[in-house]
Amino acid sequence: MTNPFACIANGTDRHFTHRGINCMTQLGPFSINGYIELPENHPWLDYPDTLEVHPDIEVHGGITYEADLVIGFDTSHFGDGHHPGAERACLTGDSLNILGHAPHIWTWEEVEAETRKLADQAKDTHTMTQPTRQEIITAYEALETLTDTCIHSSEQAEELQELVLRALPPKPQPTMAEEEWDDDKHYLAEAEHVSWGKMVMIYHDRFGSIRCAV
Hints:
Blueprint: E1 14-18, E2 21-27, E3 32-37, E4 65-67, E5 70-73, H1 94-99, H2 108-126, H3 133-150, H4 157-167, E6 181-182, E7 187-188, E8 191-193, E9 197-204, E10 210-213
Helix pairs in contact: 3-4
């Protein structure tokens, strides 16, 4: 079995598994760090920005390491002290002078617990049921119906509609099969293709194939 942490393990690494998630803690230059391996196709991997600013991940100091499927955090932030066993630890008392109180030095047990907490979040996010394409379309249709019914009878209806729209995934583009023939235009209404962009259906040939124009 391939070790997902092989490229960063430094000889102080300690490995364990939590709820099927591979985990590792190890001593870094200043403090103990924690890492997990995300499952393939995990939703966090699609986040468009660095995971350090992901709104749904709660771990000490945020995510400070990302490489392939491995993400991690460190315990060398404001208020943290250097671990006495770390290679570059500063134990002169300077931190005490800056903070006005003794900094917290994370133990192996505490970092392991925080790593397990991160693994819990990763596992729970990965196993959440994702809505199907049809369920998303149905949700948008239901929202439109409710809006038509309530928008004039409630001052809060428009505000509630905005909240629901922000929570819903993007509305799927119609497929060619879902479009209806337009007698005026003599072709099916436009549809979006993932690779070719906007297209219109011209006709079906005698073999049943769809002929399209980009």
